[in-house]
């Protein structure tokens, strides 16, 4: 059978033609009809560039195809070279014959249009439906992707939905026209483990209905080992290995692949030693509550949350999407005003401090946000972004000193020094997250609030960042409130774990106790949903297998 997609010696470069920087060099692979092929590799290896090139969207990111072919068969009687196809034909094919689920659903959806309008637009453009028919079909699609209250969701805007809901919208939008090829670029990166399992099961269900082939891009090798029939490994813009998942997981041919497999989280790995307890916590939260006013009455996002964080300790908050983790973090940072409770930083009550009084306190507590692209000013260079806190809090520091600090911080988070003059859109998702971590560390804070700080990073860089945080704790006594859905990372870095559900802490203990002897059924469900790196049986199906908890 002829491949659905055949990429042959694809090369892509960024920058002006006279100073072009090659990013992809001679990339070749094929995707068969109905197959699930995965592309894995470190952040910046070229995974997303490859996906955007296949969709011919790379020009909008400042890149261009400089060589090679991308032969796509939208139907059995036709084959086209996507690299040479004219733009009007491409526009007609995108969404109808091939579609893409992007890495960051919040920045991929139009913030000023309702969900219903964005879904209906696809059907009006590609299937010629009337507005009323398209809206009804959009409602049916939201129901098929198991969205609660689909009729109401049509009238809502992206910011009113959780990360898991937005990703369901993206999947529904991509599958509205039953494309032959679906490119899923990190479709579960920002999702907790239970929602991740639901999304992967949903993609499997929809694929079985439509027969769509999937090119699945991810840095999560444990997940890839359970969803893909073939794995393509990329490094520095090149394909270094391409094999069935059985052969690659059992007998990797190149050392780089073995390094990726070794870095994948495994249950029972060594966590940090118990943190020394000081005489007083650096952060104390008592009875924290946060409610939001809506047209249907107040919504209690966080209710009666209490915990202490000690010097040199990492306390992890885990729980499903929408359980109140990020709201708790933002309330602690005083980015949103708590409606109840008390927050003490370094023994000082900061619950009711005004903006001027909070300014010196913010030197002590810094935050790494969940969405790196949305939290970086696109008009500032990496140097300006990393040193912005220094410009605010240490205005007399000379530019040369700020530059030296920025270079040292980039080196610590494994970004090259020449990154200083680049802008956020010129970094990969994982590189942008490392840039956010460098910015948060610029003032040497006592407390770091990390809201999914490593969710966008590949497994090897996760190890580096987790190692960095542990090193900072040992050398500086840094304390960390670590919010994550990745229980494998939580096990590596956390001294204690607090489990949140419906805005409350339902269980809190040492990391070892939570992971080995959870007391609550909800905690046991979270741990059971974690995908494990596993070598599948020899006769693997070409479609997405069901995720087996544990």
UniProtKB/TrEMBL annotation:
Give start-end ranges for the coiled-coil region(s): none
Record flagged with keyword Cell membrane: yes
Does the record carry Cell membrane as a key word?
A: yes
Output one GO MF annotation: ATP binding
- Keywords in UniProt for this one? ATP-binding, Cell membrane, Membrane, Nucleotide-binding, Transport
Q: Which Gene3D superfamilies match?
A: P-loop containing nucleotide triphosphate hydrolases (3.40.50.300)
List where in the cell it is found. Cell inner membrane
User: Where primarily located?
Assistant: membrane
Q: Which PROSITE patterns does UniProt cross-reference here?
A: ABC_TRANSPORTER_1, ABC_TRANSPORTER_2
Membrane topology of the entry: Peripheral membrane protein
Assigned protein family: Belongs to the ABC transporter superfamily.
Q: What is the name attached to this protein's record?
A: ABC transporter ATP-binding protein
Show the taxonomic lineage: Bacteria, Pseudomonadati, Pseudomonadota, Alphaproteobacteria, Acetobacterales
